[in-house]
Amino acid sequence: MKIITDPGSCHMGEIGKAKDLVSISADCGASACKFQLFRDKPPNIPIPYKWLNELIEYGNRQNIEVFASPFDEVAYKVVKEHCRSLKIAYSMRNDSWLLESFPRFQWDNVYISQHPLDRRIVGTTRLYVHTSNGVPEYPVTSHINMSELFVDNRFDGYSAHCFGLSQKLNAKRSGANVIEVHIRGNWDCDCPDGVFALRPKELADLCEQTKGKPCI
């Protein structure tokens, strides 16, 4: 089971907090920490692209992989230059320039949100995202029936935007191999992701209950 953390905007535009979130991810037992690379997406808070390599090197010292989701062609070039893995966000799932621009072999892992992507893209990990009218819900307040999501290789994991641990643990029980979760520090997070992001204690509990033993 891989736990991939996503700080979203919870770094609040401060590289010190971004590094703290990498450390929190490593200390809690997550497999990787994934940042988002974009320019203007208010009310979300971007990280400068020049931070990425510093965060990757910091993650290496913490023994955790750091990578990113690109949201434009410039960001993709940055990710391609520095990262071992790639995440394609739900909003980018139909962007032909992105889907046609990367060979599978150059990445350790390629994660793609949502199933309806072109099935010709091989060697990818498909993550389920709960949507309403075709748009991801942030946060998800309804209970999701996980029982049929991970059969017949429909999905490999769950990109969670829900409160608490219960739906994430249900995904593990139902067969998910990867869970992507938003995380925050114990500081004020006045940003969209801060509403439902896991605090360090919750992340530690999730990692403990999903890695190395079955959920009960």
Question: Care to give the gist of this entry?
Answer:
With 216 residues, this protein is α/β, with parallel strands linked by helices. It has one domain (2-210): Aldolase class I (TIM Barrel), CATH 3.20.20. It has six helices and ten strands, in the order E-H-E-H-E-H-E-H-E-E-E-E-E-H-E-H.
Description:
This protein has helices at about 15-30, 50-60, 75-80, 95-100, 165-175, 200-210; strands at about 1-5, 30-35, 65-70, 85-90, 110-115, 125-130, 130, 135, 155-160, 180. The chain is an alpha/beta fold and about 220 residues long. It has one domain: Aldolase class I (TIM Barrel), CATH 3.20.20.70. The strands form two sheets. It has an eight-stranded parallel sheet with strand order 3-2-1-10-9-6-5-4. A two-stranded antiparallel sheet has the order 7-8. Strand 4, helix 4 (about 95-100) and strand 5 form a beta-alpha-beta unit. Helix 1 packs parallel to helix 2 (about 50-60). The mean pLDDT is about 90.
Number of domains: 1
Number of contiguous helices: 6
Q: Would you tell me the structural class of the helices and strands?
A: alpha/beta
Provide the CATH architecture. Answer: Alpha-Beta Barrel
What's the N-to-C terminus distance?
A: 15 Å
Radius of gyration: 16 Å
Which short descriptors sum up this protein?
single chain, 216 residues, alpha/beta, TIM Barrel, two-stranded antiparallel ribbon, 6 helices, 10 strands
List the helices and strands and how they pair.
Elements: E1 2-6, H1 15-28, E2 32-37, H2 51-61, E3 65-70, H3 73-82, E4 85-88, H4 96-99, E5 109-113, E6 125-128, E7 131-132, E8 135-136, E9 157-160, H5 166-174, E10 178-182, H6 200-210
Helix pairs in contact: 1-2, 1-6
